[in-house]
Fold this protein.
Amino acid sequence: MRWLAVLAEFVLAALLAGAAVWCWRNGVHSGWFAPVGESPGFTATRYSGPWLAGAAILVTAAGLVFIDLIARALHRDR
């Protein structure tokens, strides 16, 4: 039964990490601005705080689940 919990936590950690990547990608947007007259063209990057905060929370949760996964997998019954 313990190994089933380890497998479930492994899947949960992977899902949380995937959701964190998705949030991070939604939180960073780049845009290209063409040159106008004398001013040169440039690329601007816009960061969205709520998306990046969500990614940070999800990474933290994934890390805690992974630490618990390691503890369960290496625990010996005495």
